[in-house]
Amino acid sequence: MANKADIIIIGGGIIGSSIAYHLLHDGFSGRIIIFEKDGLYEFASTPRSAGGFRQLYTTVINMQLSKYSLQIYKDFSKAMAIDGEEVEIDFKQRGYLFLAMDEMMPNFERHLKLQNENGINSQLLQKNDLLNIIPELNIEDIAGGLFCAESGYLDPYSVMQGYIKNAKKLGAEYVYDEVDCLLTNQDQIKGVRMADGQEYFAPIVVNCAGAWASILSEKAGLPLPVVPLPRQIFQFDIEKPLQKYLPLTMDPTGVYFRHEGEKFISGYAEEIAPGINFKWRRSAFIENIWPVLANRIQNFENAKIERGWTGLYDFNTEDHNAILGEYPTMKGYFVAFGFSGHGMQQAPAVGKCLSELIRTGKYETLDLTPLRVERFAEKQLIVEDAIY
């Protein structure tokens, strides 16, 4: 029947499409329908993200997710080629750098030890070593930095499209309409009702709706501590080019910057009210970012802002990490959201592992049970030592 499937996925962005792709690639032979309300992906979070990829985490589970995903992204262009045409994701492994003031160095030393123990090739740099990476860097108030040369940044939209095209090729059906609510019968998921009133049925529903996911879940009486949180990004150019291409660099103030082609993008974790809001303010760059940039790199003093945009985090208010797995009181209802800005980085590993959990009932490649729904009730939060 046209309105029946084996699996329904809500959200056809990078997470939903990675899960669909991995399910079909790994041998699932049932019918998968993906509902995506934004057919042009105009407001999807992935294309609006900064595209950073890092392994510099302080929890083992996040390190494992990034380490696995790094190997996938390194080979993504060739591995996801369709009919000989490669999926170019423009992965620039120029590194990821956290700058530190004196008081931050003991923490960074602890982070380094933990990362190295878990197979992450990070290194702690002294202040003068930083000039080998960014010759123009003002290190007057900087004591050193935590650096991972394997990390960097990529084109998130191309990664998302790579998963979408490959999922479609394997038989996933994309329907570009809005899901209004979940259909349930006591403790069993039944399907979804669309905004136009049409109903679709499946014994498994996976909620990957990103910044809109918790709104849908709450509507069904299945709450999770996730809110949509706007994040602004700005693109700018400068008069005098830098000597070298930048790693994605995080200033101690929370402002980050990196190259975008021959230009630059920057942003910061501003204090802002949660909500679905896509406005961006030039004044936020001038008042909060430009002074930091100009202080850190002299060439940035003459920055010319060219454009800006806002994307949404699906922000986990409890511990800022993904919520993955089956909802404990609703059989067949799986969630994969709350990434808080890490979705694109973790999409390959999450897709692979959720495919295993849905098909076999258990994780195989990585054990993602620390990110389970129940952790909030069980007071087993996954807290990063430093959140950016």
From TrEMBL:
Gene Ontology, cellular component aspect: cytoplasm
Name listed for the protein in its UniProt record: FAD dependent oxidoreductase
UniProt keyword list: Oxidoreductase
The keyword Cell membrane belongs to this UniProt entry's keyword annotation: no
Residues of the FAD dependent oxidoreductase domain: 6-357
Entries under Pfam families matching the protein: DAO
An example molecular function term from Gene Ontology annotations: oxidoreductase activity
GO terms classed as biological process: mitochondrial respiratory chain complex I assembly
Family annotation (SUPFAM superfamilies): FAD/NAD(P)-binding domain
Oxidoreductase listed as a keyword: yes
